[in-house]
Amino acid sequence: MHHSLCWDLLVLLVRFLIPFLLIFGEGAPFSLWFVGSLLFCWFRRLCNLFLIAAFPEPIPLLMLLQGLSTSFFWPSVEVLVKNVSKQSIVEGYSSNYSFSWSAGAVAESLACGFALEFNKLQLVFVIVFIVLFVLAAVSAYLMRRNRVYDSFEFDSISGLNARHMFLEFKWIWLSIFIYALVQGIVFSLFPAYAEIKSVPKMFIGIAIFSIMIGRTASFIFFNWIPIRVRENGLEFGMLLMCLGSTPLFLTTNPLTPSASSFLMGFGLGLVYLKSFQTIIFQASRMSLYTSIFEGVISLGSSLSLLGGFMAEKWLEAPYIVISIASFSTFIILLFLKHKIQ
Question: What would you report as the CA-atom Rg of the chain, rounded to the nearest whole angstrom?
Answer without folding.
Answer: 20
